[in-house]
UniProtKB/TrEMBL annotation:
Pfam families: Peptidase_M29. Belongs to the peptidase M29 family. This is Aminopeptidase. Keywords: Aminopeptidase, Hydrolase, Metal-binding, Metalloprotease, Protease. It comes from Bacillus salacetis. Its cofactor is Co(2+); Mg(2+); Zn(2+). The keyword Nucleotide-binding does not apply. One of its GO terms (molecular function) is metal ion binding. GO terms for biological process: proteolysis. PANTHER family: AMINOPEPTIDASE, AMINOPEPTIDASE AMPS. It comes from the Bacteria. The keyword Cell division does not apply.
């Protein structure tokens, strides 16, 4: 068995070589918790070895985040520094790559007024409006990966000590990203090839409507002829492939904005803005959420839905087999990067232009004509289980099973 040091080395290598696929002379921006400076240094060394011209690191601190939400005046929450967003736009135009190390603490903002959190989220969303298409359109290389902070690890393994919880979470990250095995880069190339085959199959079938049925879930949604199914690997404006999520198991597309009808129920908790939303359901009519409920996090869910007009419509449909590495751990990670890749999921809010044929070159008006949803928010939540069935309907009304009992039916 490989040592932890060997697996950390492989993991850092995987993030730089496969996730970002950093190119000679490229700038890399790393966003990370300040507690994980050691691993960030390892990534930085890998980046320079791969030919990076510059590595810029932006650290975050949980205590400072909570203090701002507790004590800042509303005016401070409503105003995000535009210069910071403008800097990212400038760097994106110069082909900088972005690596986000995600370690969200699901109880970080527990007890904070949901309206204050919503103010801050909306302010940052508006500030980054020009930057957002670089990400959702796959125009630059970007990656979300994970590092196990003490606060996150303890929510996943509450019965272990902090050190034991962090060590155990590292092992789960190594397992789900395949770096616990020899030659993980080659393993990921094979995995991407298999997911691409599933996406190609769905595109070849020409489905124009999907029907979902599972515990608490019964809804239908239309697909536009210009939308397409894609999977793990994107190609940026320079023609370079990258993998924006590690780990990833999803094949996904976008819905027609006004076509969603029926009810969906969550199957895993959603960690959103430092709070958990759990056991919730949404009822859609002509695309919009008309009714909703939640056993936990109701106010947080309400503020999410009220972010703007588009946040109460869907922007993504993602298929993930129940029989997959993350799902098979049988662990609730309280981290959407992992939980969404253990379960079929859908997303409230902004659609992804990368899922539209020639979407990068289409205007906002052209995208809206094909049912593209626009929002400051994009929040994935899990609806999959071993009981979920999905059928695809073609233009002529003929039906074909896509998922049966939570897994691919083909």
């Amino acid at each position: 068995m490989a040592s932890k040091e060997t697996k950390l080395e492989r993991y850092a290598d995987l993030l730089i070589r496969v996730g970002i696929n950093l190119q000679e002379g490229q700038t890399l921006i790393i966003n990370a918790p300040i507690t994980e400076a050691g691993f960030v240094a390892q990534l930085t060394e890998k980046a320079y070895d791969a030919g990076a011209s510059n590595v810029m690191v932006e650290y975050s601190d949980e205590k400072l985040t909570r203090l701002k939400m507790e004590k800042a005046p509303e005016e401070g929450l409503k105003n995000y520094p535009q210069w910071k967003a403008n800097g990212l736009v400038e760097m994106a135009k110069n082909n900088a790559a972005v690596l986000n190390l995600a370690a969200p603490n699901p109880t970080l903002l527990k007890g904070i007024d949901a309206k204050r959190i919503a103010m801050a989220n909306k302010a940052s969303g508006e500030a980054f409006r020009e930057y957002q298409p670089f990400i959702t359109g796959g125009r630059i290389s970007w990656l979300i990966a994970a590092v196990p902070t003490k606060s996150w690890a303890k929510t996943v393994f509450p019965d272990l000590s902090e050190k034991e919880a962090v060590d155990e979470l590292w092992e789960k990250i190594f397992y789900t990203t395949r770096v616990d095995q020899e030659n993980p880069v080659q393993l990921w190339e094979k995995h991407i090839e298999n997911m691409t085959k599933n996406a190609d199959h769905l595109n070849d079938r020409g489905f124009r409507k999907l029907h979902y049925k599972g515990p608490g879930t019964d809804f239908s949604v239309n697909l536009h002829p210009k939308s397409k199914w894609i999977c793990a690997q994107f190609t940026n404006d320079q023609g370079v492939n990258f993998v924006p999520n590690l780990p990833t198991e999803e094949v996904f597309t976008i819905p027609v904005r006004d076509s969603v009808n029926g009810t969906v129920s969550s199957t895993k908790p959603l960690n959103y803005s430092g709070n958990l939303i759990n056991n919730f359901s949404l009822t859609f009519k002509d695309g919009k959420v008309m009714e909703f409920s939640a056993e936990e996090g109701y106010e947080t869910l309400r503020e999410l839905l009220e972010t703007d007009e588009g946040s109460s419509f869907l922007g993504e449909l993602a298929l993930v087999p129940h029989n997959s590495p993350i799902s098979n751990t049988d662990i609730i990670f309280n981290n959407t990067l992992f939980d969404e890749n253990a379960s079929c999921h859908i997303a409230l809010g902004n659609a992804l232009s990368i899922c539209v044929e020639n979407g990068k070159d289409m205007s906002r008006e052209e995208l809206k004509e094909i049912g593209f949803n626009e929002s400051l928010a994009h929040v994935d939540f899990m609806i999959g289980s071993e009981q979920l069935n999905i059928d695809g309907e073609r233009e002529d009304g003929s039906m074909e099973p896509i998922f049966r009992n939570g897994n691919w039916a083909f």
